[in-house]
Write a structure and sequence with these properties.
Layout lengths: L1 H18 L5 E8 L6 H20 L7 E8 L4 H15 L3 E3 L4 H14 L3 E3 L5 H5 L9 E3 L4 H15 L4 E7 L2 H14 L5 E8 L7 H10 L3 E5 L2 H13 L6 E3 L9 H5 L7 E4 L8 H14 L5 H20 L4 H10 L1 E4 L2 E4 L11 E6 L2 E6 L4
Parallel strand pairs: 1-2, 1-3, 3-4, 4-5, 6-7, 6-8, 8-9
Antiparallel strand pairs: 10-13, 11-12, 13-14
Helix pairs in contact: 2-12, 3-4, 6-7, 12-13
C-alpha cells in the first residue's frame, strides 16, 4: 500500500508539473504523510482534495482555468514539510498552499509562507499556536478553517462537567505538539470544574504496545481516561484495553470516528465513552449524506475527518480565488478575509486571527454505536 500511494503521488506531481507549463491551471500545493505511520491519513487528504477539484473543474474551473494540486510527502514531520513547501513554491509555482495534518509540520510552514507572501489555508492541524500567530497575531498569510485545541477543550470540558460524574481523570496523549497542547487545554477547562488530574502520560508516535500503561491505569482506577490519540494507535490501544477487560470510559479526543475502530465500538466494550471531533461521516443531515455517498462511491471508503476538511478547504479556496478575480496572492488573501463559505456543519468565516468558528460534534458510544449528542460552536 505504501508503495502504491507513493508512486501515485509522485506520478501526480510529475503530471501536474508538466501541465502547469501552459499556465492553464491554478495549482494548490500541500504537504502530507504519503509514507510513515499515518500515511493512510495522507491518502484521505489526497482524496478529499481530488474530489473537490474534480467537482469544481466539472463546472468550468475557476476564472476560466482548471484547478490542480501537488502533494509532497511530509511524513507528518517538520523538516520534510518545510522541504516540500519550498519545493512546491520554487519548482512547481503553486498559487496557494494548504497545511499539513501534524501541527508541528504546519507551524514550521508558517514562516515560509510569510516570507513568500502566499496564502496558507490550514484545515486539519489544531495547535493553538497556529491561531495565535495568524492574522493580527503577526502572520497575515495564514488562515484556519478547523477548530483549534482550546475551542474543542472548552466545548468538551463543558459537556463532561455537566453530563458526566467524573472527579479524577488520567491523561494519555501522543508526545507531539498536538498531544501536549490538547492535555494542557483540557486540564485548563476541567480543573476549575472539579475534575482533577490523577496522572499524565505520553507515548511516542508509532508506539503500539500499551500494556504497561493499561496495567498502571487499571490499578489506579480513574473515573475516565482522556486520550489524545489518532487512528492506528487508538486501534491498538482499544484492542489491548478490551483484552485487559477494562471498564473505564475513554474520552477527550480519541479518534472514535475512525473506520479502524468501528468493530471495537460495536463490541459494546466502550459504551459510555465519548469524543469531540470536527467531523463524523455518520452525521445525518442531507448535505453530509450526499457527500459521504459520493466519496464512498469513488474511493470505496467513508470520508475520514482529514478528507472532509481538505474537501471543504479546497472549495473555500476556489471561492476566494473566484471572489478575488485574480490568482495574485494579495488578492486571494484579501478575499479570504471576507470569505463566508458554506459548510456541511455551518459557515466558515474568519475572525481577526484568521480563525473560523464552525461547529464541532460531541459523540458518545451507546449500545455499540457512535451517536452525535451535541453540536457545539467553536
Amino acid at each position: 500500500m505504501r508503495g502504491f500511494i507513493k508512486s501515485a503521488v509522485v506520478l501526480a506531481g510529475i503530471c501536474l508539473s508538466v501541465s502547469g507549463a501552459s499556465a492553464a491551471e491554478i495549482k494548490i500545493g500541500f504537504p502530507g504523510p504519503v509514507t510513515g505511520p499515518v500515511q493512510f491519513l495522507g491518502q484521505h487528504m489526497k482524496w478529499g482534495a481530488e474530489l473537490a477539484i474534480e467537482e469544481i473543474n466539472e463546472k468550468g474551473g475557476v476564472l476560466g482555468q482548471k484547478l490542480s494540486f501537488i502533494m509532497e510527502d511530509s511524513k507528518c514531520a517538520s523538516p520534510e514539510a518545510v522541504a516540500g513547501t519550498e519545493k512546491m513554491l520554487s519548482r512547481d509555482g503553486v498559487s496557494v498552499l494548504m497545511g499539513d495534518i501534524c501541527s508541528s509540520a504546519t507551524l514550521a510552514m508558517m514562516p515560509i509562507v510569510e516570507r513568500a507572501k502566499i496564502p496558507l489555508l490550514v484545515t486539519i492541524s489544531t495547535h493553538p499556536g497556529v491561531t495565535e500567530k495568524a492574522g493580527v497575531g503577526g502572520n497575515p498569510w495564514v488562515f484556519r478553517t478547523n477548530p483549534q485545541d482550546d475551542a474543542l477543550a472548552i466545548a468538551m470540558g463543558k459537556y463532561l462537567a455537566e453530563k458526566k460524574p467524573y472527579k479524577k481523570v488520567a491523561y494519555f496523549a501522543e508526545d507531539t505538539d498536538y498531544g501536549r497542547a490538547g492535555v494542557v487545554a483540557m486540564q485548563k477547562e476541567l480543573e476549575p470544574k472539579g475534575i482533577k488530574t490523577q496522572s499524565v502520560d505520553y507515548f511516542k508516535k508509532g508506539e503500539s504496545d500499551y500494556v504497561t500503561y493499561l496495567t498502571k491505569v487499571k490499578g489506579a482506577e480513574p473515573d475516565a481516561i482522556l486520550l489524545f490519540m489518532l487512528d492506528q494507535e487508538l486501534q491498538n490501544f482499544m484492542r489491548q484495553y478490551r483484552q485487559y477487560g477494562l471498564k473505564i470510559p475513554i474520552t477527550g479526543r480519541p479518534a472514535l470516528v475512525s473506520a479502524l475502530v468501528k468493530d471495537l465500538i460495536a463490541s459494546g466494550a466502550f459504551d459510555g465513552s465519548s469524543t469531540i471531533y470536527p467531523y463524523y461521516a455518520g452525521y445525518e443531515n442531507a448535505p453530509n449524506k450526499a457527500f459521504v455517498e459520493k466519496y464512498t462511491k469513488k474511493y470505496g471508503q467513508e470520508p475520514h475527518y482529514v478528507g472532509f476538511e481538505m474537501y471543504e478547504g479546497v472549495k473555500l479556496m476556489a471561492q476566494a480565488i473566484k471572489d478575488a478575480g485574480s490568482t495574485k496572492p494579495e488578492a486571494i488573501q484579501a478575499a479570504l478575509k471576507k470569505a463566508k463559505g458554506e459548510s456541511i456543519l455551518g459557515t466558515i468565516q474568519f475572525d481577526d486571527h484568521h480563525q473560523a468558528h464552525n461547529r464541532a460534534l460531541i459523540l458518545e458510544v451507546k449500545k455499540g454505536r457512535l451517536e452525535v449528542v451535541e453540536l457545539p460552536s467553536t
